[in-house]
Design a protein that fits this description.
The chain is 48% helix and 12% strand. By secondary structure, the protein is an alpha/beta fold. The radius of gyration is 27 Å and the shape is globular.
């Protein structure tokens, strides 16, 4: 062991002792591996199970690195909960514990995207022509119901009051209950910002103050979305750095994909055109301004889209245009190209900023900047759709995002065109792994017992170091995996009577204390409806209250059950007697009509790989591992994961999925399962 490693272990021991913890072999092993990777400039993927203490295992070497190089280390997380844990608990406690061991006081900061911070310019008159009663832009009001306007207006008023109280303007520190629509009235995206030097509130800007603090910090905590923005942007968004730690790394690809996904919405186009019309001067022989021309192009595109939808086959049929587009439907390419060109013309028309506008009319300057960004985005999105759908798209030189996937989502209320990257591996490879030393960690990385699946998704080369430090929990003696093989395979028609009866028996045997993880909202609601009044235990349902409130109720009442969908599969941390049974209704494969997943599966098959295993099975394995991981959250926990899908035990891919889950003792016997649950009751 090197002197540096000795130093790492010494600091770790000091921190653990100060925080009242106990030494853990996995934590020590991980800390050494992280230190070595940072020192040798090698990428590292570490699977560290629940209870390992992985935050300390990467924070100690990160602090050492930052203080030795005078460059901050970036910590990227997927969830707000972990961000807060790091910034509000872990880092302040570490700073205190290591005060005598470090050369100077530890400085840490949290940094998010600009639209996460309240914009003072927008609050104090920067929102051009916003309704004085509602705070909502009149063009947006025209497309909202009176009820929506009133509701949004009340929230905007609340935000204006909060602006006089908040110290950081961070939305996450705002009491819940404010919609995205209301927040947009008081925030701006980075492309819409006037810039600190031009903004009358530049010196007080919450986003700029957060950036300034981050620039001086040793450890900067951010999120995967901002990490994506930094990777895609031409100018850096994060402070200069050469080391990135990606916690909750199993979420990295989905969050990067989400950040790189764009959409075309007739509603949004109509709002944008009305706003442009207010600023654009009259031009051309027609006497129409660029805003009117954009509105006409948007109307033509919307009418053509409506006609194409009406003339197409029903959803799911070969002739339907709802779903994935491999090419722009006939008749839509011309109107989409016209919309693209009108957006660019509007952009060029309003880009000429009149002299003195920033100082004389900052409200209009802010609106102009926002519209410049929005019209550019509209142009770029339309071009992405047209380019992705071109016959030779796949043969063209790929940009950072590679090949795009395009699809149409439509119902009675909304029509949206989405365009998303088929893969983000090239983006990560070129803009993350080639520029920084990256540590990726999570409790769930070795899917099917191997890291290869996740590494391929990240675009990380096979020579990167991988490490599984295990968990201090003995899953085999503390947990049971029960697969109800006597039940029929789940079908599309919904929950079977046998599955409902099975769930009731399991819950009664466990005395409540059940977390129900369902593959769809409909299944969760149906199961809750069927069991309420049948089992003598309270059943909470996701959507009936805020997530934090539901989890807190579930934690406090030991006999309560909590049912929900994807939001509960990850991040729910309920150690102790309130949770002894996790029920999973079916293997969580992606929906067969998910355009992006389907495209990725087809691309893998085309390349000669097993598309089902690479995409669908890997997706399911990740969720199963995360869902099963809700069971054992402390060394004293005991319980069962019950899967009501026989395919986990009978299908050829079942072993791959089971190998992704904790190493529980397994049974297919209902009698054994019910008996075990009864014995586990307090």
């Amino acid at each position: 062991m090197t002197d540096k490693q000795n130093s790492t272990q010494k600091l770790l021991a000091t921190a653990v002792d100060s925080l009242g913890g106990t030494p853990r072999a996995g934590q020590q092993k991980m800390a050494d591996a992280v230190h070595s990777a940072m020192s040798e400039h090698k990428h590292l993927a570490v699977q560290a199970g629940t209870g390992t203490g992985k935050s300390l295992a990467y924070l100690i070497p990160a602090i050492q690195r930052a203080m030795g190089d005078d460059l901050p280390v970036i910590i990227s997380t997927a969830t707000i909960a972990l961000q807060r844990q790091l910034v509000e608990r872990d880092l302040p406690r570490l700073s205190k514990a290591l005060k005598e061991e470090l050369p100077r006081p530890l400085e840490s900061a949290i940094l998010k995207g600009r639209n996460n911070y309240l914009c003072l310019n927008k609050v104090h008159g920067g929102a051009k022509e916003a309704n004085s009663d509602t705070g909502v832009h009149p063009d947006a009001e025209a497309l909202l119901s009176s009820e929506e306007i009133s509701h949004t207006g009340a929230q905007v008023k609340r935000l204006h009051e909060w602006a006089n109280e908040t110290e950081d303007g961070d939305r996450d520190n705002l009491e819940r209950g404010v919609s995205d629509q209301a927040w947009r009235q008081v925030s701006v995206a980075s492309r819409e910002c006037l810039g600190a030097s031009r903004c009358p509130f530049g010196e007080q800007c919450f986003a700029e103050l957060a950036r300034a603090k981050a620039a001086q910090a040793d450890v900067v905590v951010t999120n995967h979305a901002l990490l994506a923005i930094d990777a895609m942007a031409d100018a850096p968004v994060l402070p200069e750095h050469d080391v990135v730690v990606v916690d909750e790394a199993h979420e990295l690809v989905s969050r990067i994909t989400s950040a790189a996904t764009a959409e075309l919405s007739p509603t949004a186009i109509a709002i944008l055109a009305k706003r442009v019309e207010k600023l654009a001067p009259k031009a051309g022989e027609s006497g129409k301004d660029a805003g009117s021309e954009l509105e006409d192009a948007g109307d033509a595109w919307t009418k053509a889209l409506d006609s194409a939808i009406a003339a197409s086959e029903p959803v799911g049929r070969p002739g339907s245009i709802i779903g994935r587009w491999t090419e722009v439907p006939v008749g839509l390419d011309v109107t989409l190209a016209s919309l693209r060109d009108a957006a660019w013309k509007a952009n060029r028309t309003i880009s000429g900023i009149p002299a003195g506008e920033f100082s004389n009319d900052p409200a209009q300057a802010a609106e102009r900047q926002a519209l410049i960004a929005a019209t550019e985005e509209l142009h770029d999105t339309a071009q992405r759709v047209l380019s992705a759908s071109a016959p030779d798209a796949a043969d063209k030189p790929a940009d950072l995002l590679g090949e795009d996937v395009v699809w149409l989502s439509s119902d009675l209320k909304r029509k949206q065109i989405f365009v998303a990257p088929l893969s983000v591996a090239d983006l990560l490879r070129q803009r993350l792994f080639s520029q920084s030393t990256v540590i990726l960690t999570s409790a769930t990385l070795a899917l099917g017992g191997k890291f290869t699946g996740m590494m391929a998704q990240w675009g990380l080369s096979s020579d990167a170091t991988t490490l599984d430090v295990g968990t201090p929990f003995d899953a085999r003696t503390h947990g049971i995996l029960y697969v109800a093989t006597h039940l029929d395979k789940p079908g599309r028609e919904g929950l079977s009577a046998d599955a409902i009866d099975e769930t009731a028996q399991l819950i009664n045997a466990a005395g409540g204390r059940t977390l129900g993880l369902f593959s769809s909202r409909r299944a969760a609601e149906e199961m809750a409806d069927q069991l309420r009044g049948v089992v003598p235990h309270k059943i909470l349902l996701q959507g009936e209250d805020s997530m934090s409130s539901l989890v807190e109720q579930f934690r406090e009442d030991e006999s309560t059950c909590l049912f929900g969908t994807l939001g509960l599969w990850q991040g729910v941390d309920v150690p102790g007697p309130s949770l002894s049974l996790v029920i999973i209704d079916r293997i969580p494969f992606p929906r067969p009509d998910d355009p992006l997943m389907k495209a990725r599966q087809e691309a893998a098959a085309k390349a000669g790989r097993n598309g089902f295993m690479e995409v669908a099975a890997t997706h399911a394995a990740l969720l199963l591992a995360q869902g099963a991981g809700r069971l054992l959250r402390s060394v004293d926990d005991r319980g069962m994961v019950a899967v009501l899908d026989q395919r986990l035990a009978t299908a050829r891919y079942g072993s791959f999925l089971r190998n992704s889950m904790p190493d529980f003792w397994e049974t297919n016997s209902q009698k054994t399962a019910l008996g075990a649950l009864r014995r586990l009751k307090p």
